[in-house]
Structures are given as C-alpha cells and as structure tokens.
Backbone:
C-alpha cells in the first residue's frame, strides 16, 4: 500500500532575493514504485513581497538530473529548509547546521524580558525534587513569521509550559500550553507550513499542538512507555519532520519514526493521524551488559542523505538507512562506539562527515582512545574515526567533555566544553587552532550567523552572551559581551533579524537587540 505514490519534497528553489541566497522546498509529486526515485528540478519563480521600497526578484531556471535525497539532502547543509520563514527546529535544519539569520546586533542590550515573574517548577530526578527555573539544555527557541505578519517566539520552559511570545513586545501571543512536568529540550515548528508544533516534556509525553485555532490545542501525544523502555521516559530530543514523517529519539532508549498524515478537516483546521513506522532500540545486549540500562537518547537526531543518526548514553552511535522507511524498514548501516554518554547533537557536514561532542563521565579506555570531540566518516570500510580531541575535566572531582552541540564554520568546528573552553578545531586535521575561556558548565551551543559566533559565557557568575568575529575562522576575535543576566544561559540562543532570543536559568526569557 505504502510507497506507491511518493511525495518528493526536495526541489531546489534558488532565488536571489535582496542579495541573499535561499534554499527552500517545494513539493513535486513523483510516481515511483521502484527504490530509485529521481526528482528533476522544475522551473521555480521566487517572488518577494517585502516592505522594501523596491524589490528585485530573479527567476532562475534550474535543470538537473542529480537526484535529491528525500531525507536530508546534502545541499541543505548550512541552509534554511522548508517553506516556513523562520528558525523552526534545534540547529535550524535536519543536519543541525543552520543557526539563524542576521543581522547580528553590534551592541546588544536587553530589549525585553518575559514573563513578569520567574518561570519555575518542581521536578524529581533520581528521587530528588528540586526547583528548576527558566529554560535550560537544549532550550533553543523557535522564531518564525506567522501568516499574520507577527514574529513569534516559542519556548518550552521549566514552569511546565510552552510559551508563545510576540517578538516585538515580549507579550503572550497565545495562552501558554501546560504539561505535567518540565518542558526541556527544544521543540519544532512544522517546516512545511502546517500550523503544528512538536515537543516533548518530562511528563513522558511527546505532543503535537495545533496553532490554528486561537489558543494551542493538543492534537496528539504519545507516552514514552509505549515501549518497554530501557531507561527513563522524558523526551529531550527535538523531533525532525521531513516529508510527513517525524523522526525522534526517546530517553526510553528507542528511536521512533511516525508517519504524520497531516491534513486539514472540512472546517480548514489542521489534523494529524500519526502512525508508527519503526521503533528501534538504541542499545545492544552487549552495551547493556557493560553499562546497564542507561541507554537513553537525549540528543536531537540528525538526518543526512537518507540516513538518520543518533547516539545514546552508553556511547553507541547509530546510522539507519531511511530509504525503505515507508515500509517500516530502517536497517542499521553505521554502528560505532564512542565510549561515553553522547547528549550533544550530531552535526553533519556537506560531505556527510559526523562531528560529535561526547561527555567524559565513565573515564574508560575507549574515551581515552577516541577523545571527546570526534569526527567520524560513516561511509568508510575502515576505522570511522578521522580525528579526536581530548576534553579533560577541569578538576579531579568533575566530569569532562561536551554537552553543547558543535557549530560548523568555514573549515573550522567550534565547540563549547563543559570544563569551560570554546575550541576552534580544523575540520580536516583536528588541530585545535584557538581556544578561549568561557566559564565552567558551557552547555549552550555556539551559533554562527554572518561570520559572527555567539556563545553563552560565565554560567556560574550571572550568565552573558559573547560574540566573536570569524573573519579569520581559525582565530576568532572577541567583539562584544552583554551585561550579565541573572543566571546561567544553558539554552542555545536563536539569532533572527537583528535580535538574539534566549532563556536563562534565572527564570526569565530575554530578547537582545541593538541599543
Ligand atoms: Ca519523565
Ligand atoms: Ca533527560
Ligand atoms: Ca545522556
Ligand atoms: Ca550524562
């Protein structure tokens, strides 16, 4: 039944608009019953309706016979994807390599904070109940332009709620949506323009909300206990939605793909009818024998050229082939052991090489052998490890390694480490060309927009944002640092058109912009 008629969603739309290069998606129906489907790019016309006094639109006719990968085409690395105008998911696209749009402010100050009183909630981890405030790891906001022209920021926070904020005013655009526990991780806005928001909560549910009927309405949820999980039941992983399929990892130690069946009802309201395609264990019996049940997926999955990549708390790095996913088949085509808990999201470059940040908690021989920032070649028949960089702890009583997701620059990988360094690493050689002190517990991921890198710093002493100029990518130069906010910035910021949006553990959410 499935797979007879495929919607190939990836056709290159290249349009020069206002001097900027854009990559967007248009849907093209393709009849295909064989395993090879070639999508031929069609003529596309870009029209711009901005408020600029004059707008030049350029139509480009593109004819190519290069097949587009249905999931995570290589040409989307570093690019915005989808038809929505915005930053729609953690690290912006399925290869986790799009960080927002400029301009980056030159002298940023706090334009507004949200809300009036701190967002806090109690939650129990390993039998201990604590008060958690603000937003945390990974916590990157969605920022998008709604059909009515309002720029809206969407965040999950530790007061158990998802908040919807007017980016201009800092006021609620919708009533916050409450769950039964902390909202951690990052959420995704449907990149194809369906008014849907996808997110997980510590209350064990992964949810889909409809955003087209006033206040947000839950259309669907799935409980982590749908499977007999190996570990806990949270959903920290940010879902990736491509071509009506949602890819997600669970703290229950399973990888899931759901066919969403997105549509609209007779009243024009968006609908979903998710059906499971696969649920695949992230663990192996051998790893369970070695490390016990701590096998969770907490990273956000990455998708490149019809493969999905994820890793688990025992350090197993998995690549699945998605070419038969409609039929519920997703064989393991890459399998690697990096030695330790891997919660930073895998970053994929244009050649399909994988960059991983790994924690150093177990202090085993394998961690010593491979390091805590590594480059893997998932296509080689030999040893996938291209290079590794060691990230030792700052003290004998602490962990080492990386929780932040690396940022891919021009031949250089930027990595914030838990011991408190920002590293610039040559992607070819693994040479550390530069480093700077950014303060202990740097779990916020660096973002790169317009040759400027923005990094959360000084977690223990108030928390601030710092910017570096990347004119020489191998030797970043500091250009500014904001005043301290009231607490650690553990979340990853979103840069969008002159503003920087990010939450802090002090309980509040911040919009930074030009003074
Ligand atoms: Ca839970
Ligand atoms: Ca977790
Ligand atoms: Ca973990
Ligand atoms: Ca850990």
Residues:
């Amino acid at each position: 039944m499935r797979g007879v008629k495929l919607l190939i969603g990836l056709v290159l739309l290249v349009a020069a608009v206002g001097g900027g290069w854009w990559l967007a998606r248009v849907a093209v129906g393709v009849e295909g019953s064989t395993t090879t489907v070639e999508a031929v790019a069609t003529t596309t016309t870009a029209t711009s309706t901005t408020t600029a006094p004059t707008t030049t639109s350029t139509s480009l006719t593109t004819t190519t016979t290069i097949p587009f990968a249905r999931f995570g085409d290589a040409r989307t690395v570093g690019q915005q994807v989808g038809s929505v105008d915005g930053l729609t998911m953690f690290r912006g696209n399925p290869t986790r390599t799009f960080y927002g749009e400029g301009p980056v402010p030159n002298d940023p100050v706090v334009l507004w904070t949200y809300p009036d009183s701190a967002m806090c909630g109690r939650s129990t981890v390993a039998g201990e109940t604590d008060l958690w405030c603000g937003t945390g790891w990974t916590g990157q906001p969605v920022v998008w332009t709604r059909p009515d022209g309002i720029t809206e920021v969407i965040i999950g926070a530790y007061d158990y709620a998802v908040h919807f904020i007017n980016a201009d005013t800092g006021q609620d655009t919708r009533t916050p949506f409450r769950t039964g526990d902390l909202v951690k991780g990052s959420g995704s806005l449907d990149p194809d323009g369906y008014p849907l928001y996808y997110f997980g909560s510590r209350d064990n549910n992964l949810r889909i909300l409809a955003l087209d009927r006033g206040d947000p309405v839950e259309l669907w949820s799935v409980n982590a206990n749908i499977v007999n999980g190996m570990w806990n039941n949270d959903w920290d992983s940010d879902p990736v939605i491509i071509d009506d399929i949602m890819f997600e990892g669970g703290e229950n130690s399973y990888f899931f793909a759901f066919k969403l069946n997105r549509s609209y009802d007779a009243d024009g309201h968006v609908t979903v009818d998710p059906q499971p395609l696969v649920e695949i264990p992230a663990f192996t019996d051998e790893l369970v024998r070695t490390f016990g049940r701590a096998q969770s997926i907490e990273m956000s999955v990455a998708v490149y050229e019809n493969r999905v990549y994820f890793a688990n708390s025992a350090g197993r790095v998995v690549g699945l082939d998605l070419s038969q996913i409609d039929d519920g088949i997703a064989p393991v085509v890459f399998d690697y052991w990096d030695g330790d808990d891997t919660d930073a999201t895998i970053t994929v470059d244009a050649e399909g090489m994988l960059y991983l940040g790994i924690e150093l908690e177990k202090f085993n021989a394998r961690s010593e052998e491979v390091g805590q920032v590594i480059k893997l070649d998932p296509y080689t028949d030999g040893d996938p490890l291209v290079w590794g960089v060691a990230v030792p702890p700052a003290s004998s009583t602490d962990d080492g390694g990386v929780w932040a997701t690396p940022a891919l620059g021009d031949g250089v990988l930027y990595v914030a480490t838990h011991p408190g360094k920002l590293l610039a690493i040559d992607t070819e050689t693994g040479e550390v060309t530069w480093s700077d002190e950014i303060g202990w517990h740097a779990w916020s991921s660096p973002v790169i927009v317009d040759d400027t890198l923005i990094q959360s710093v000084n977690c223990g002493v108030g928390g601030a944002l710092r910017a570096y100029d990347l004119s020489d990518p191998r030797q970043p130069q500091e250009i500014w640092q904001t005043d301290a906010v009231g607490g650690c910035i553990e979340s990853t910021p979103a840069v969008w058109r002159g503003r920087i949006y990010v939450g802090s553990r002090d309980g509040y959410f911040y919009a930074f912009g030009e003074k």
User: Anything to note?
Assistant: Confidence is low (pLDDT under 50) at residues 1-55. The chain is about 5% helix and 40% strand. The helical segments are 285-291, 365-370. Residues 341, 343, 359, 361 surround calcium ion (ligand 4) (CB under 6 Å).
